[in-house]
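Side project, low priority. Logging it here so it doesn't get lost.
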Amino acid sequence: MAEKGSIWERIVELLSHLNPLAALERHPDPRHTTTFTIAVIALAAKIAKADGQVTRDEVTTFREIFLIRPEDEARVAQVYNLLRQDAAHFEVYARQLRRLFEHDRSVLKDVLDALFAIAMADGEFHPNEEAFLESVAAIFEVDAQCYAEMIARWVPDRWNPWEVLGVSPGATDVEIRARYRELVRASHPDQLIAKGLPEEMVALATRRVADINRAYDALRARKPEGAASSAE
């Protein structure tokens, strides 16, 4: 009977009878396991209340990222509330994800990107949210440049086109163009879908490409007259 229910029913059952920090599930694609879902929701619950309150915008962003179906809303609310109570142990959940994807760190970057989206849903970047995201990034072993790119993309008052593209202010037009093309290829939604990226992450990839384009356009606009054509 359990196999016929939704993943949310199975998760509620698991959380009701077992330690949620149980052994990792073995699956060809770990993103399809309850372990993955529990860990990600635990981190989402933690970031949502990191600033002391869970806002409607943060909950809405959570629902949008995970594409919650109407028939699953009650179950998801149960899962979210159960994990919000236990989210003090977020480091354990983050380490679970790192072990699940030790050979595919790109998924960890997608998860971190989703956490940034929830943190910024209310338009403010609280110091506690920043501290939490820094801790998760360290556990995920996300390099400093990648983390700086996320900060520059997500936090309005830290917007920096150089950091969004991950190039230095002294980079040449050729280097800027090459980096831009590399990032667009890596983040293009069609390519990510083809590689099996979960559907719920596609919207974040689309936002990422828009930010990359915006940064590239900004750097081209700042070039001296006559130099812009070399970056096309």
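Brief comment: Confidence is low (pLDDT under 50) at residues 1-7, 14-24, 225-232.
Revisit when time allows.
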